[in-house]
Specification:
4 strands, Rossmann fold, 2 domains
Length: 168
């Protein structure tokens, strides 16, 4: 008998806790994309006189649960609204999304979660992967192979070659 050990890590398991040190603001914008945040900042700067106070944070800095909890308590807990652009789907910031939903509900904070353009492709790839595994289990390898290739291609496009969900 052989025992195979597999190590699987999520974003939060390899992260080091950080405190972004941001004071509360009326509006908080969160995204994994620096270009999203830069575009939002540029628009805010143009009309800042009549706009609410703003904080921006890259979700890559909020990967550890302690970082999330600290940011929610220190910065978001007093916000009137939060805009979250979730690239890669819910699984890429699961703890943060769950905690943010809870806080928004408790404090009656307006919350908008915007999926990235690849979200539907990701779901389709997941469904194709599941179907491929079913076909493989039934010995139908030739039918499974194109589905596996499509799932791998989408995973590479959405989360990068280095992400743990991307097989080689």
């Amino acid at each position: 008998m052989h025992v195979v050990f597999r190590e699987s890590r999520g974003l939060e398991e390899t992260a080091i806790p950080k405190d972004l040190g941001q004071d509360p603001a009326d509006l908080v914008v969160l995204s994994f994309s620096d270009s999203d945040l830069a575009a939002f900042a540029a628009g805010w700067r143009r009309g800042r006189a009549g706009l609410p106070t703003l904080r921006l944070a890259n979700l890559a800095e909020l990967r550890h649960p302690l970082s999330v909890d600290t940011y929610l308590e220190r910065t978001i807990s007093q916000a009137r609204g939060v805009l979250l652009r979730l690239i890669g789907g819910e699984t890429f910031w699961a703890y943060g999304l769950s905690a943010l939903h809870r806080l928004a509900k408790e404090r009656q904070i307006a919350l908008a979660v915007l999926p990235a353009e690849k979200r539907q492709e990701w779901r389709t790839a997941e469904e194709g992967y599941s179907e491929a595994r079913r076909l493989e289990a039934g010995g139908r390898y030739a039918e499974a192979l194109p589905l596996l290739r499509t799932a791998l291609k989408t995973c590479r496009e959405v989360v990068s070659e280095d992400h743990p969900d991307t097989a080689s």
